[in-house]
Amino acid sequence: MSVNLDAAPGAVRTSGPAPRRKDRGLSRVGALFVSPYVLFIVVVFAVPLVYTVWISFHRFYFTAPGTKIDSPWVGLSNYRDVFTDPVVGQAFLNILIFLVINVPLTVGLSLVLATALNAKIRGRSFFRAAFYVPYVTASVALVAVWQFLFGSDGFVNHLLGSHAPDPSWLVNSHLAMPMIAVFVTWKQLGFFVMLYLASLQNVGKELYEASAMDGAGRVRQFFSVTVPGVRPATTLVVIYAIITGANLFSEPYLLTGGGGPDHSSTSPVLLMYQKGIEQGHPDFAAALGVVLVAFVMIVSLAARKLTERGD
Amino acid sequence: MSATTSRPARRFRAGGAVRYVLLSLGAVAFLFPFYYMIVGSLRGTTVGDLSAAVPSGLTGDNYAAVNSAISLGRSLLNSGIMTIGVLICTLVFGVLAGYALAQLRFRGKGAVFAALLLVQMIPFQLLTLPLYVLVVRDYGLGDNYLGMILPFAINSTAVFLFRQFFAQMPQSLFEAARIDGASELRILWRIALPMARPAVLTALLLTFIGPWNEFLWPFLVTKNADMQPLAVSLASFLSNLQGTVANPAGALLAGACVLAFPAVVLFLLFQRHFTSTDIDSGVKG
Description:
The complex is a heterodimer.
Chain A: H1 11-15, H2 25-56, H3 77-84, H4 86-117, H5 124-136, H6 139-150, H7 155-160, H8 176-200, H9 205-213, H10 218-229, H11 231-247, H12 250-255, H13 268-278, H14 282-308
Chain B: H1 9-42, H2 61-70, H3 72-103, H4 109-119, H5 128-138, H6 145-149, H7 156-168, H8 171-179, H9 184-195, H10 197-213, H11 216-221, H12 230-241, H13 248-269, H14 276-283
Helix pairs in contact in B: 1-13, 2-3, 2-13, 3-7, 3-10, 7-10, 7-14, 8-9, 10-13, 12-13
């Protein structure tokens, strides 16, 4: 969940060469201390990454442990299947819908709440805790409540009476994906409120005073001082949202019953699960995974360029 | 906000009111679903209408019902084993790695640190398919605690937090101990770790919510209901076991309460250690 390389405090200080020491044994201790973690990264990240790419170029079948069967090289055939499958296109489109709703909502709401929280006020720790509780709670538990709140016969529809959407929220092909985006926004907002709260500490107080002298009102100050001041945090929110979008699984699987009406809330990871494990085409799923990594990188780079462009 | 001090008092009060209205609206939006979850889990018949928000005719039947459908105790035990396994690995190996990255000099240190940052950027779910093939098919670790723990064993965000914390400690302290002939392990255990207690608490809390709340990976690895952690068994209750109990919505919400409770309680207990600065350094990398 982290991205901002250059902002890491102390990164410069310790990752450069440390002062020379006579005792060469020390360096062996360091390598020894770090070796379990390196082994972990190799086993859990490097090997699976390389393996995915390998699988994506072969015809691959699941086998029982210990059995060997051939996995012939098939070139780009799996990728051709991925690109010609309309559901894949739909899944990526769904991620874009997710981002279009999630990013502005997250940035707007968390920035407003963080600004409101950024003062010595009564009940500050209560509000902080309240905002953070959904973030620490399991998606599965929260999905259960949301299903109950937004079901056809749920609390929200009872409130709305005849204004309730038909078909209801979670089974409506126009609303299923937006519902997921709103759910994720709600669940993770507390995290970003805290992030912006930390970022607000770095916005110079004199900027507020100067703008007040120039006659700027509260709203004007918010847009001219606060919003540009927390830009690095905003970049982080956007990149985090992209990673979340790329990771979506439990919400479409559980909240909208396995990807929603007519795949309207299918996500790429859900599709990887359905194609790879349910339908037994791990090679297709691996190619889809590689495409997804490329997608994440391209969208992140583009987003970074966009949010970091000068004022 | 400091700007308010230079403004007329009336303006200040109006600003304060807006602030409270905003924060209170936020708090209601965040907490209402939890309130609804608890009340719904305690009602004899749980229906979706407005009356469901009013506590009346409270009963513990739903907890008994969900317990009979998915054996809560067993699921909680599985969640606990998985989470504690991850916590122990992160604490032991993560502290060692964090200390080495912060205070020791060794070959390939830059590469390890770069890998640490990179790992946090890779969407983990992307790796689930090849990991599934490796762990379940090749190593035969399906329905096995080791297989459940493996992908989360050392939490990289926690390693990063440890490293940041150890890096802030004065080098001279460690040099002095080294001159006195203390081994690195002893320095870490006796000097660095006690000073890093707040970071350790934050890192453990951050680490806890991962495996405790995780759904996809244990869902893939465990087919045997006796091995499933609570998030997985509750999800299977949600998708196909609801017909087996008298008040399915209530039972589901009761299960949701049990799943939510430990993480929320731990968070509230350790809240004051969990400051915004920690989160800031936790996500920067």
